[in-house]
């Protein structure tokens, strides 16, 4: 045996030994042993198949230094075994093998779907062998003997083509995935995305058009945009879509109303349901590099449905100028209309009348039947008064049980008198409040422009004075203002003297309305409410005298008295071991504005030994617009002391989410005007849900006030409001009754399910 043949034989034997131990791979000399151990996985794998050991060895030697992963086989069965176990990029295949032909191996490759290219190497001179190989998908056919360069070039070309095909497949897959992602993003957009050609016809529209407008994509492609635009907005649409703007001026925003599809008929009729769409359009241009100009290509646009936003804006605008309870113009809108009426009367040299109406006996209804029935009464009164007015007259609610009216273009005073008589007559009929027959009347004061005043405030003030004159004379009537009436300042002086005497003679008293934890049924807090034990008029609520006190500079001494009274009362309930009960007190804006307010509060807490953590100061939303920066400083001092701050009657004043961030707020109180609207525990009351969501989002404590029915309580509880106060649980009660409730609660501790008795 010559040395070459001996080396080949040695290599084959070594390879067989390795195959038994590691993997069944057959090689033709010792070199592949190292290759299989160290070659990285990304090297091209080539299977060399030839039954001539010398040819197989020389082929291996020719390719071994070319960064290929080489495996050899000397017969067909060995080749099939390798192909079944290992992936190969290229097979160099001899057609004439001892156990099968190369064609059979190629058939095996094709049948099994093996992705390997084949270069056939054969010594056969017949054309049939080459044709058979090429038919079976051979990359190339080399006739033996072949030159070294020919083989290397053919192998390199085959592998290069394979790499290119793999890269092309990868790019095609990426493009396909990118296209799918693009389609998904566009069709999943919450907005309508569209393109128009230069004629204004749709060339693309996403699926959102169908969801919002009812038009399928096929219904719009090729159609002019005008089939969607409301007739009144067509001119604006033409201006926007036909303008040929470029560069940074190519983007344009406009609001249009679009029609909705009415049904699936072939004619595609449209109903009158219109959707307001905010359109952002960008002109598309094709650059002409030769003539240095832009040719208009079409329009790309995004249409966003802002119907809900527009409706919300309308609601907000409406509510800003109307009373939520009665749907009448509020004080702001009334003054605006009165101002316009005064200007008109001045121009035409005519008279107008201003009426101030205060309901008699309304407090009795509120106190006996509750605020819900009182609100229903106000709504019914508003309806009756509106029915008595002429076209062009304005009825507004000033607040509480007070209404104002402007009657423009009077012929004479008799017109105002006739309408006032109609008011009294319509109110004389009984009101039905869920089976309760209620009788009320009204006191009406009338001021005439220009004789009784030429300004808005003067007319309102004189009408108010005339109304008080009716009250003083026994109520249930009307009176025109005249100069001989008792000046309003005298009335204020008399009431001021009574209030000052009330402070001196200890006629003021604090009542408490418990705040309940609806999960445990326990009292966890109480709101302090001031009462006046008037010698002649009986027990007066804070609303009956505190507004006057604010107008006459009495809020400061009254507030000083209130802080002391609250601290003294708290000592009594703390003595029962109820230090965890928090007290809420209403803070007047005037008192907050006073420079020594903070020191007064801190001094009282120290003097009586009350923990600041037991105190929560309630402020109204309006306090935040008087002197915001000063209010922030004062409230921050309170918070540093340990006192918490609550927003009372949230949502009824100058509502602004910004002050919830600027002011140190800990608690939001849902106003009873919102709570009373809850009539169905499974209903949807978006204002309530919005306030609850705001409190939860900002981490604020939440209290609902004015809870009077089980339905209201269940709805609030199911939506996350767990602290409540109102007639359903307790009315405002005197200190002695409140302490008795606390004793009951302490005695009931340990008895599950005990619910506080109604006060």
Automatic annotation (TrEMBL):
Query: SUPFAM superfamilies attached here?
Result: CheY-like (SSF52172), EAL domain-like (SSF141868), Nucleotide cyclase (SSF55073), PYP-like sensor domain (PAS domain) (SSF55785)
* Membrane-spanning parts: none
- Modified residue 4-aspartylphosphate is at which positions? 94
Location of the EAL domain: 492-746
Boundaries of every Response regulatory domain copy: 45-159
Q: Which Pfam families match?
A: EAL (PF00563), GGDEF (PF00990), PAS (PF00989), Response_reg (PF00072)
CDD domains of this UniProt entry? Answer: EAL (cd01948), GGDEF (cd01949), PAS (cd00130)
Q: Locate the GGDEF domain: which residues?
A: 350-483
Any Gene Ontology biological process: phosphorelay signal transduction system
Identify the InterPro entries for this entry: Biofilm_reg_signaling (IPR052155), CheY-like_superfamily (IPR011006), EAL_dom (IPR001633), EAL_sf (IPR035919), GGDEF_dom (IPR000160), Nucleotide_cyclase (IPR029787), PAS (IPR000014), PAS-like_dom_sf (IPR035965)
User: Which keywords annotate this record?
Assistant: Phosphoprotein
Q: Domain PAS: where?
A: 178-249
Return the protein name: Two-component system response regulator
Origin species: Massilia eurypsychrophila
Species lineage: Bacteria, Pseudomonadati, Pseudomonadota, Betaproteobacteria, Burkholderiales
